[in-house]
Structure formats: C-alpha cells, structure tokens
C-alpha cells in the first residue's frame, strides 16, 4: 500500500487491519504478489476504506457524549422531586 503511515491514528477497522498486516509483513507480501502479477496495487487501500466506513471507531462521538450526559444527569436540571 503506497503512502501508508503507521503512526496515523486509526479511523476504523480498516486502519487497524492495515497496521496489523504491515507489522506482520503481510502488506509487503501482498504488494510483491500484486507487482509480480502486473497489477497496479493489491486492493488493500480499497478494502481498508470499506472496512473503515463499515466499522468506524469514533462514529457519532458527539452523539454518544450527549447520550452519556443525559444518562448520568449531567447538564440537566434535577429538582429531586418524583411524580408517581
């Protein structure tokens, strides 16, 4: 995979898999096989992008923070009275 940055924070599962295959040496093998078959690339970049889109790590972080605050009562007015 060209222009691969191992230190870039992972956006999703695709980045995690790319880092794993890089660390294990699988990425080099895939690139060499693709090159020997006359292919422009091995398709790793496309798979990485698809996996990042399907399984993002920080999707809806803002929405999750709002839900967490609502669940704990943060940021809401609590009068301490209960109807019932």
What would you say this structure looks like, in words?
The longest helix has 12 residues. The model has no long low-confidence stretch (mean pLDDT 80). The chain has a domain of 46 residues. The N and C termini lie far apart (62 Å). The protein is built from 4 helices and no strands. α1 packs antiparallel against α3. By secondary structure, it is mostly helical. The radius of gyration is 22 Å and the shape is elongated.
SSE arrangement:
Layout: H1 13-24, H2 26-36, H3 44-54, H4 61-72
Summary keywords:
55% helix; 84 residues; single chain; mainly alpha
The string of secondary-structure elements, in order, is HHHH
Task: Please state the CA-atom Rg, rounded to the nearest Å.
Answer: 22 Å
- Summarize model confidence as the mean pLDDT: 80
- State the secondary-structure class: mainly alpha
**Share of helical residues:** 40-55%
Q: Between the first and last Cα atoms, what is the distance in angstroms?
A: 62 Å
Largest sheet data: none
Low-pLDDT residue spans = none
State the shape.
elongated
Number of contiguous helices: 4
Count of strand segments:
0
Strand content: under 5%
